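User: I'm putting together notes for a lab meeting next week and I want to include a structural view of one of the chains we've been expressing. I don't have a solved structure, so I'd like a prediction I can at least talk through. The sequence is below, exactly as it appears in our construct file.
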Amino acid sequence: MRSPVFPLTWHLAHRSGRRGLQSQLIAAATAAVGALVLLVMLAAAFGSGSRAERTSWRAPLAAPAGQATAVQAMTTTYVRHQPLTVVNLAQLPGRHPTPAPPGLHGFPKKGEVYLSPALAELVHTLPGGQLAARFPKPASYGTIGAAGLASPDELVAVIGRAPTDPTVSKAAEDGDVFDTGLTERATVAGFTGSRPSLLTSSDQQTVLLGAVLLVMPVLVLVSAAGRLGAAQREQRLAALRLAGATPSQIIAMTAVEATAVGAAGALTGALAYGALVPALAQVPYGIGGWYADDLWVGVPWLLAVVATVTTLITASAIAMLRQVASSPLGVAQQAAPRRTRMVRLVLFAAALGYILVTTQAGEGLTARQLVTLLLLFYGAYWMFGPWVVDRLGRIAGRFARRPATLLAARRLSDDPRGAWRTVSGLVLAGFVAGFFSVGALAFDTSGHQDQVAIATSDTTSARHTAEAARALLRQAGVTARVTAVSDDASDNLLFGTPGVIAEVPGGPERLDAAVTALASVAPGTYPLTQDYLSAQDVAVVDRITSVSTATLVLSFFVAAASAGLTAAANVLDRRRVYGLLRLAGTPLKVLDRARIRETAIPLAVLAGGTIAAGVYGAYQLNELVGASFNTAGAVELAVCTVVGTLAMFTAIGGSRPLLRRVTAGLEQSTD
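Assistant: Thanks for the context. Below is the predicted structure for the 671-residue chain, given as structure tokens.
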């Protein structure tokens, strides 16, 4: 016998009218937003890992002496404060030919120079004395392909050398004296690198941190899509239940409808993601933009996200049917308010106590432990939120002095879970704001920006090198004060290492000219600048700053979208109640004020708690990495909170015309 579920589901959805269609469109739009944000997060996580892997060949992995075929010496210099990676390669005589490095068609011969596209453009743009003179001058430059680059904007040069060239023969085996990881040398047999470049090694971990903080608000938004139009659906299914439909048939009908709406919305979000990949590739992160292929997650992951979003929406919609199945008459008469139980408070207190004890018990926590505690906190707060909303509604109703406040209090206590869904996005976004704003890392990298340094083995060598440096700078037309420093001088770039310090006033152009003029003084490495010594700290701060900005923007966008969509759906769900209130003489502005206060009351209490928790989480992370708070973040936190709140209320205000239309024809609205 043919099942009546599918035709009946289609008939009811088709006959639900314009307002039923509006609820379905809002749910589909919510699913589309959730799928889009999830795919962007996955793309950033996978893409940052892929481009970091493409830099690993530059960190030479030493081969056994008898098997080595070439010498590889990697170093880093800076131009316009941008890192420029230089890889010097020399084929060892009498050995097997060395395979080509990634991105090159063959192993570079002596005198050949290959440049990344971005570096080639810069070489032709800047005066030769500021950049081009740092490299040999070939008949023509070769081009490094995407396989050897992390980003289209990355500056990389590969230079072919002779084995006796001081650039490779005198380069230090263990890297530079400051152990920054930006200068290394080894005899190699191929280009299987040992680790990603310092300039990309922290990219993926930072992205994953932002994704973990953002994933819960996104999942909350997706789950909310399954509950949009819940009141209308409950009334319809309760009538069917009273007419003889079985619980399994009701569940099947709900699952079919929610799956269809969720799949349509998720597929729309996936298509939007595919269309936006070229635009997303232009967004800079770390060393620059992205290759579009790095941001394409692939069809399996795309389908997995679509399936996940659809499943969450379906499960959320089915979870709302418990009361319909057990008490259809109560649902039809809207007789039972949805109270919450005290066990929520007990479980939240237990989870919070465990988090506090865990974070204070040891000297430090691993990143995995912090992520686990973060997810536990999110889950506990999600369970705790409706209980707080319920109690706030009862308290507000007891002390209400205005009709709008009384109506808002009644809605909070009658449906605390629905009210919580409206504010949950911004409440959880408050944790992200508190974590990233006040917890922003800060390192002082402005100490010696006008200095160029050359390290030497001793003070005697420093004096000879200083004479050579003066002559080279004079020949290049660069005005500088050159000083030979000993190992007891620490107020300079060398920090107690003997060498030469050239103080070059006049900005980055003059500094680049000085570095270029002195490039031949120290074989195997370029003269040092503040950018070189601060590279690791700057990389950490830059990545965290970029991810924090993106996470804050996305979290508030998700929160505003969640609030606006939920508010619009609530208007459609409550149109009968609003119509009866209008018939009773309630002004439209009172209903609108009640909606605003229904959001403002729980938001003021709950968001404050998550912001404080975010600040505490940032404190624990800073303890882990040995950094201090950025005090200017308090102002940023206040701005984020104000902007997020305004965005949420603006989104809610966007449903005001819908409220007016719903209550315009009173005799139809209160059927």
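A couple of points you could mention at the meeting. The longest strand covers residues 70-79. Confidence is low (pLDDT under 50) at residues 328-333, 667-671.

User: Perfect, that's what I needed.
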